[in-house]
Structures
1.
Amino acid sequence: MAQRDSGPAPVRRILHIDMDAFYASVEQRDDPALRGRPVAVGGSRQRGVVAAASYEARRFGVRSAMPSVTARRKCPELVFVPPRFDVYRAVSAQIHAIFARYTPLIQPLSLDEAYLDVTHPLVDAPSATAIAEAIRAAIRAETGLTASAGVSYNKFLAKLASDYRKPDGLFVITPRMGPAFVESLPIEAFHGIGPATATRMRALGIRTGLDLRRQELALLARHFGKAATFYHGIARGRDDRPVDAERRRKSIGSERTFDRDIHDWAEAVAALDDLSGRVWQACAARGVGGRTVTVKIKYADFQQTGRARSLPAPVSAQAELLRVAQDLLRPGFPPDRGIRLLGVTLSNLQPADGDASPQFALALPV
């Protein structure tokens, strides 16, 4: 008996949900005195860096990753608050629990944004737009925060759409709109095309989505290698990447910028001890371990380097993480210039073995 044709696959319905100025909004929610004021989450010290900025601060040009002294110069009334990552993680868990009411296909990108595939939702809803509205309403009601949402038929366009009406907005890019929507966008606005790639594209005369669409795949491959197929597709509004619910975080790291440049080994070890402890606690909270340790070093002249070591088995204890980090840093001492920043990262992550995790919790001597 002939097999019946099930017909074409349904058009995917993808959401990108992005919290509005998440860290800063949580601080303004929890402290009424901060509402309506320009707020920066991060260190206010001379070597501090802005981790997040409220929309009031952004109007002055304050941005994340900006040195605190620059942010203060742009906005003298800026209020700095220290980050509370335990609170942000707890709120993020609330938000992801809301997502899970609508679909199991959730791909978190960070604490404050995620892709959702609602092609086959867990609720009876008339459209993906209705689901996005319901999610935004639930987030506002249950957390007191606002989220922006993008709705489209692929991840690339959903991401663009969520940025289009920020803050507290929703925008839909339909299959009919997709190819035309990207035509006039500057290359820098394309998610997946970073500053360095955009500079190379501009050198080739590619300044907009339409310019990119006019390029032959062979030319793109010659200049951009394996990424060419992705660029060729998104210029036409195409992106076949699935929402990957199994996607795991690739690394966990922590870094510290010093109030003054350090030269002394004892100071460096003390910093590594603190950083290793933060990384280890974050790994323990997520139930993961890792095999590759990386130490990041930024010098006083802003030159940056990194050293890494992959181990045959996951790091078994915080003391081992510290010991490997010290071994990686030691060849750089004594430094011929001051060290401005140190960072420790653990990657090649994998789940810890079971609840007991005897190896994961073992404390080895330094």
2.
Amino acid sequence: MTPIAYLEAIRAAYAQFDAAFELHQPLSPEDTALTLGKLELPHWLAELWRVADGGPSWQPVFTRPNYFTGADFLPLAEALALRDRLRGIAGNFVGWQEDKPRDPRVRPGWFLDGWVPFAAFGGSTIVLFADCDPAPGGLVGQVIAYVHDPDQITLLAPDGESYLAQSLAWFLEQAEEFVPEE
């Protein structure tokens, strides 16, 4: 599934409930080239930010399939600020271990520089990342989720395109849970 098709399908889901679906204007081509050029992003994520610079808070755009927590599409500046904040506190979690074994395609650690956040729920209690530095057997661009309390990191999809398809299927199946009431 392409990012443009995904966002249009989400827009249509909102329209079925007569709810407004707003995204921020895309970054200028110059800003997009400058900012995205510094990051090694998978195509699907770069394309999302080329279409729109995220969306407003408390407007779910993405899902964690099988959970009822819709995630906001982070503007690029917020995503990079969150990444910097996580990088800054990651040292507090050296040696941290999860209660359950992690999928072996995701490197160990509480936060890694190769994780690029693109969506969040509840003040970053749940964060969705494009994993740009997977463990052996993983793919660049696989989608992972961080969930706080208890802290855990799970693999959601082996690539962005399949994640978008899974997220959309769950969003559409449970749209009344994700589309905010006007």
3.
Amino acid sequence: MDERLRAFGTQLIIVHDWLRKELSRLREDMDAYLDGRGGRPRDLLAHCMTFCTALSRHHTGEDTHAFPALAEQFPELAPTLEKLREDHHLVTGILGKLESLVAGADPADAERVRSELDGLAAIMESHFSYEERRIVTALNELAHGYDGTGLDLTALAAPRRST
């Protein structure tokens, strides 16, 4: 079996850690700009878009592939998976607001941008922690008893580090 298919749950934690770090970097970049500690980084919007796309792709992969596979093998996880899907919808709305704010951000928008980033960080941490507590073991068990047929969990792989 492919190494990637042996530890879905472990891979999920690696992706979450990558997303946490990227959000932290994005917050630092935005704070530096909004606090007047230098000019607006040229790639701030690109960094935001890359992060938002990676997070959206991760959640879509979970909703489309990982969660249905888990629900099939572990029906008792249905309420947990539904809560996680609800979180994904909430995050999607925040990402849309964040992308719009960052695209037109100037120092006058500092509080709104910080508020959205802080809200996103809080929701993501709560969501990731809950997900890790509730489904990592099941994902790892799924990986050991699953041949990978029809299951695309590439969204559980950490993207390459943005620059």
4.
Amino acid sequence: TSLHADVVLVQETHFSHARPPSFKNHKYPIGYFSNATAGRVCGTAVLFSRSTPFSNPTSLLDPAGRYTFVKGQIGAQWYTFVSIYLPNRQQHSAIRSIFHQLQDFQGGILVVGGDLNLPLDARLDTSRGVTSTPHTVLRRTRTALHSLRLMDCWRSLFPSARDYTYYSAPHQLYTRLDYIFLPFGSMHLLESATIGPMTWSDHCPVLITLSSPLARPREKLWRLNESLLTDPQIKEGLQDALQNYFKKMTHLTAPRRLFGKLIRPSLGDT
């Protein structure tokens, strides 16, 4: 909540499907959760902040806890938010199955985020430059992403940089396992992408900012400080400004005919 995100994609919630805890957070009153029927394993979620005008929601929840799909409107624009958590083996098979479900569900601007449990580019996404994940799994996972024309937001802005989202103490290895993707046709909306510091989780958060002219934060209403009107100097200044304004209008505005009637500017009491 300290990141003040409007939409949060969460993985590894580890809530039991039989007895899920109630998630109560006044900053994120709307949440969609996929809890595994097999017990306290996996688990994904999509949360919306109270300042996000999300409407007409539809969701698709995975009984295995591997994905959560939520579709709805923010302002007049439709979005589909997807939170996924892949297993640590056969990731390509899992993501193909998830995307098969997604193709019939998605609508509007697609945002996919999650823990893929593999580095997409071992050369840049691991501290050693190598990975134990089979090359075939990596290639087929990238092919699945390409089938929806999904682009890695952080890598698109930092094509040759190194940064990581997970540290394995037993292997003394840093890897980038967590991603947010946008379709190629929506990449013009991407304003920024960052990897945040690791705090209470063993993974670093990934944050993106999208431009959206259709929904703006609620603005505070401006109110006049009425005590200013009791100040003689301020009151005198306001009277002078009004008199000068109407004097200028007198010189600038000439009588004109409109619908056969002569209209003159009304100056009121000056």
